[in-house]
Amino acid sequence: MARDGATDADVAAAPLRRVSLEVPTRAPSGATNAYVVGDCLVDPAARNPELDRLAESGRIDHIAVTHTHADHVGAVADYAAIADATVWAPEAFADRVADAAGVTPDATFADGDAIGEDGPIALETPGHAVDHVAFAVPDRRHGEIGDADGTGEAGEAILCGDLAVAEGSVVVGPGGGGLTAYLESLRRLRDRTPTALHPGHGPAIEGPESVTATLDRLIDHRLDREAAVLEAVEAGASDVDAVVEAAYEKDLTGVADLARATVRAHLGKLLAEGRIDEEWRDRIDGD
């Protein structure tokens, strides 16, 4: 229910608001994007004066996160207390949200459920993290796909967390949802033909053509890396470090651990598909 003089219609029509929060993160931007849509706050990674004002004024009724990595959950408990807001979690991962955010969720959701009444729609998108979800919201800025003046039915924007980024790529390491799941999640978003993506880090990707191009780029990047990893194994690389050295041509200073985690995930996928020998199981798990 809307508070502080705002009607439910006012809240439903409120534009999407992005608030950049400086937090300890490996993302190149050095910040995590929190989003406010209607009366829902997504990914409050840290306290912020703008978010404080919204919470204190009673404009936040619901809080959700795209996943439980530390750079997305840091202020969930604070804003839940300040706003007396309902904290939501995926029904399969409520305990993970409680452990990561330091507050027990009040409600759970399944794939396709709304957060609150007429709030963002949850979409299961594992890969970067096993508990990763995205949230679909109306995109009134772009209108219906193909509607240049934006006067038609709203398109669909997706708060995509760490599933996609405008530039670069996303780390998918062991212990996350896995590369097979990550690729399926990217394809799921692409099939929905959204008109905008709003990532957890970095700028928005706006317009259906840009969104499709970005999702295609991320899919192709993963498949190209997979091919490089398989080529390295077939050429005689016998451990994870040797595969990393062969599969990456760029300087890995500062990100070598992330590259190594990604290679392990690629090797795990290839092993599960029977494309590399079983002897790699101990090499992946032991490194």
From TrEMBL:
Annotated TM spans: none
Name of this protein: Glyoxylase, beta-lactamase superfamily II
Domain Metallo-beta-lactamase: 31-201
Pfam families: Lactamase_B
